[in-house]
Amino acid sequence: MAVRDGMAAVLAVAALLGSTTTTGQDKSQGAFDVATAWEKMRAEANLERVYSGYELLSEMGYALDSIDVEACRKRGGDLSKAVRTAPVSIAIRHAAVLCAEAMGDADAAAAEAELLDQVSREALAQADEGKSAKPIRVLAFQDAYTLVHRLGMQTAYQYYRDERPARHFPFVVAAWDPEDEVERHMAFDVVDSAYAMSRDDTHSGFPYQRDVLADAFLKGQLESDQVLAIDVQAIRDAGFQPSAEGKVAKLRPAAEAGGILSARAWLVACESSPFEKCGDGLVDALLPQAEKRDALPMALLAYAYAQGIGIDRNQTAADALLVAANRIWPREGATSEYVSLWLAGHEEPPSPGINALVERAMVAGNVNIRSEVLRNRIQRTEKPVLSGEEIAHLSRQDQNGLGAGYALLAAYFSKSGDDARARDSLQRAAQAGDPGAQADYGFMLAEGDGIAKDTAAAAETLSLAAHGGEERAMRYMAYLSEQAAKWRDAVFWLLPAVDRGKIQALLDVAGVMEYGRSGIQDEQKTALRVYTSLAEDDDVAEARRRLAGMAIEGRAMEKAPERAKAWLLHDAEQGDHESETMLGLHYLSGDFGKDGEAEGMRWIRKAMDARHVEAYAGYASWLTYSKKTPEARKHAIELLTQAMDLDAEVVANNLAWALCTSPQDDVRDAARGLEVTTKMGDLEAMGAPELDTVAACHAATGDFARAGELQARALEQVRKFQANLPAAPEGGDPVAIDEGYAARLALYRSQKAYIETDR
């Protein structure tokens, strides 16, 4: 798909920025406390130095229950340094215990073992098989495997929970407990810790750094043919396939290799978008793991039998497999996965059979099943009803390690019309770390929607949401960066969404690059590639409009007005009002020839007949600044006044400016203009152009003190913005957008209003 091609273009250019790291310094340590050590590492440790300790383990022959004795003699000092560098590492501390034992130093071994126990206990205190729980934080994958080994268990299989990182990138170790003969599913995360220790890289501080780190881990795992990485790569590749056939083709090899996510996605694809022979090979892919008594593959196989995917329906076989899997997976873990699959693939209410499975799992104490059922009910029911006990369940601590339970309650209370409880639940969910809740609550703070407006808290909350993978929040943080002319920052905020193939984020990034703002190599050519790919392969009208703009102005290509006209006509002829407006305005402006006014008016009228507010605003601007006659200016005011009823925020700035600064006495109406400025939004959140307008209206009404105050704020914003603009091209004149703002400020300080004589 073109989305992927455009995404690759942006990411490839961004990668050219490179990455740098600096080496941290050792800090003296006091009495050992695991929680304090973790915080100290996150605040001060250097990722490269920390990971060198794990490389040392490999060099010393560390293998869970053994280590090379001679290496302990020769490299003991290096190992001690590695422990000091990464005091919360389970694997490195375990290696220190093994070395002390191998060297016959019983006292040292006992002391190291006690410290290792402390670190292990802290990790286990986080362990929870609930999907709403935080994953166990570790520094490296080796720590997870060592912890499982120290618990007397063996790693049976592994899988990532998701295809891409959000704040975390949990990987699950399905560990076989030989004593109890059960499977324990333990979720771990290395990405958040690595992110905290990557303070000096190019992408540090941005969500994209988490993607970079996760991809680095995956690359290493792919190079050693680890199934969990092959699995994730297949899911990513399948996500860019437009058809079910294409998706299954990407998923099949990974599922046959033992990939859990791929097998599950294969089931979902064949149930939701079946095609002939869709499920062929699926049962054969799952059988080897089922025969080894791996519980999750057994649950997936049971579902295939029950739904007849890749095999004839056989409910008896499905039930037998599910019973066998639940013997291995405590608290009906297999049933929970089975029901989750059913809910994902069916819009209708759960069948009696599914309800019976749910009841059985709930009786067994499964913490995931009830939440899954409640989520399904809340999301798919217009007016859901929850009992007091169900509300209490979603409020439990084990449902809110990351705020998922509170987020569901926020949605429930919102649908129930209980706004107060909805806000309270949303705030709790945001504080606990639910990214969607953080985005929703952040926008409420930004807009003062039902709560006190707090732009600083909004930015902080939306930053957290962006790090949690929320595209809306990424775009808002990019917007804030653009307002400060921090163009490269804007790109970095958006890159995770671009990496996930989000078209609007891709357009946002290309919009920065199109004007050569970010300083990224070949950015204008990259923008051209992105727009072309989206226009030709994904039929994105906005991409064609931007290509038209580049062709008319000659950005990254020779001026080509005929090509621009063709791009705009493609969508205008299909009734796209933005394209109609843009086409009409370019005709009126003479970009398609000298005698284009009649044709321009034809297209503008089409858009205005559809009450497209931008057509009114654009046509009014043309009348004011191109036609320039007294009659044209009056007509512009009439159009803007009409458009106020369509979308006041879009046109209020233009109307107020015209009323307060028009050179025509019979058009200028300062009192009315000042009234219109009250429709422009929150004064404290306004950018320089809006402040410029409000200041002009205050000056027009004789309030020069207020005009000067607002104009000074506008000028300050403009100068900060201008300071971050790219350097002028060689031989070109530097941009000086502050001159008009400064001139108007001087007018107001001399007790004079501003009258617009020319633009």
TrEMBL record:
InterPro entries on file: Sel1-like, Sel1_AlgK, TPR-like_helical_dom_sf
Gene3D superfamilies the UniProt entry points to: Tetratricopeptide repeat domain (1.25.40.10)
Protein name: Sel1 repeat family protein
